[in-house]
TrEMBL record:
Biological process, per Gene Ontology: formation of cytoplasmic translation initiation complex
One GO cellular component, as annotated: eukaryotic translation initiation factor 3 complex, eIF3m
Assembly description: Component of the eukaryotic translation initiation factor 3 (eIF-3) complex.
Sequence ranges of Polar residues compositional bias: 426-444
Species assigned in the record: Malassezia vespertilionis
One Pfam family linked to the record: eIF3m_C_helix
HAMAP family for the chain: eIF3m (MF_03012)
GO MF annotations in UniProt: translation initiation factor activity
This protein's name: Eukaryotic translation initiation factor 3 subunit M
Length: 444
């Protein structure tokens, strides 16, 4: 989606444009009415072309273009390129005969957007590519700061989301934060839009990449709320709580320390949802169960539509990652894992496989030893205890490397000494042989 598209009418007459548009749109009328409707519009167009007075001609042309646009029935029969060309012509005529500041300009533009993006129709998914291209062209038609851009993009976003075609917007989603900053819309509207985008990206039918992008928009939303002083305290609090709850719901989001540092998140301190966030950042499964059994926890689960089983599963994976983080380059017994997770030993291997798939841990299972050797593990937080553990591990590595270097040097010295002794022995054995040879030669 570009932002520098300009529509230019070619050297046709208004009559020619009207005939072309009317003939295509007439297919939406009952057959007995088609000819009459087309004829009435072409007569109006001919009258405009024959009008000598410039102001009168302009007024009649605007009235005719308005009538043509308002008669647009949406996506009609025809090839996608023809449909796109038809609406490009309508957008060009709108741009040519109306100024963006005209009251009717916005009304006509929004009508075109509405009939193309109608998501309430059972056939909303039909001809989706043509609809996307038409709406994208409408978006590009508008100035960068135009508030109508937000309306057009939201229509396109809703349609693509409904049809499960978020791939069409993959590049637009990368540019969307910049566009949001440019659009001249109210802070409350931007707050609403960010919520809509993040919610759509969390849909279970979205691709994994889009679900991951949901976190980016939820975090962007939190930061926007933090910096936007025009929002009411009630709006800030409600939006922040919902965003945090949505983040906790994301199945592949495990590192949430960054969320704790957003100013608006800290304002939630003392609320049940903030307590839950703290548990996921530094608590355990036991803490989660205690929270869930409290009155505030039960109310929050119901209020934010949280799934306790999903939360418990995520918490178990985090507990396992924390256990492994304390045992990097060593082994963790199946029994120790079962105790931390609160599961039977028979389930340990499946949990270890799940935590590896989640990207939190890497290592090797040993059924013979009933243990898991940890190669790497993710920390939920990295504070003083983690720094101290890292320092201790580095010191151990340093000692190990020093011991290895000393061993290598000792081995090299012994090797050189042994080589020298072998050379000396070989020389000593050769001297008697040389003396015997010389004596034999003298006697002969």
């Amino acid at each position: 989606m570009r932002s520098d598209l300009v529509y230019v009418l070619n050297e046709g007459s208004l009559l020619e444009y009207t005939e072309e548009i009317a003939l295509i749109f007439s297919s939406a009328f009952p057959e007995p009415q088609r000819a009459e409707w087309v004829e009435s519009l072409t007569k109006e167009a001919a009258a405009v072309d024959e009008t000598q007075e410039a102001d009168q001609a302009t007024a009649k042309a605007c009235a005719l273009v308005s009538k043509l646009i308002k008669s647009a029935p949406g996506i009609v029969e025809g090839k996608d390129r023809e449909i796109e060309g038809l609406y490009n012509l309508l957008f060009a005529m709108l741009q040519h005969y109306f100024a963006p500041t005209d009251a009717e300009y916005k009304e006509l533009l929004m009508h075109l957007v509405k009939v193309v993006s109608d998501t309430s129709s059972p056939a909303a998914g039909d001809r989706s590519v043509a609809k996307y291209r038409v709406l994208a062209n409408a978006f590009n038609l508008l100035p960068v700061q135009s508030p109508e851009r937000a309306t057009v993009f939201n229509a396109l976003f809703s349609l693509a989301s409904l049809n499960g075609d978020m791939d069409f917007l993959c590049y637009a989603l990368d540019s969307l934060p910049t566009w949001l900053a440019q659009w001249e819309v109210l802070p409350e509207q931007k707050n609403e839009y960010l919520g809509i985008y993040a919610a759509a990206l969390q849909d279970s039918e979205c691709e994994p990449d889009h679900v991951n992008k949901a976190y980016q928009y939820l975090l962007l939303h939190l930061r926007y709320i933090s910096n936007e002083t025009a929002l009411s305290q009630e709006t800030r609090r409600a939006s922040a709580e919902k965003n945090v709850a949505d983040m906790l719901r994301l199945p592949k989001l495990f590192e949430m320390e960054e969320v704790m540092n957003v100013p608006v998140t800290t304002e939630l301190d003392g609320t049940p949802i903030f307590a839950l966030l703290k548990i996921f950042v530094g608590g355990t499964r036991v803490d989660l169960n205690q929270w869930a059994q409290s009155a505030d926890g039960k109310a929050s689960i119901e209020r934010f539509h949280l799934d306790l089983q999903d939360l418990e599963r995520k918490m178990r994976l985090l507990d396992l990652a924390t256990l492994c983080a304390r045992s990097v380059s060593s082994e963790v017994s199946y029994q120790g894992i079962a105790e931390v997770l609160g599961v039977d030993i028979a389930e340990v291997e499946s949990w270890v496989i799940d935590v590896i798939r989640a990207g939190l841990v890497s290592g090797k299972l040993s059924q013979v030893k009933q243990s898991f050797r940890v190669y790497r593990s993710t920390h939920r937080t990295f504070e003083k205890p983690q720094w101290e553990a890292l320092e201790e591990r580095l010191v151990q590595w340093q000692k190990s490397i020093q011991t290895l270097i000393t061993t290598i040097k000792t081995t090299q010295s012994q090797t050189r000494a042994n080589s020298a002794l072998e050379a000396l022995d070989a020389s000593t054995q050769q001297e008697p042989q040389n003396s015997e040879t010389a004596a034999a030669a003298a006697s002969s």
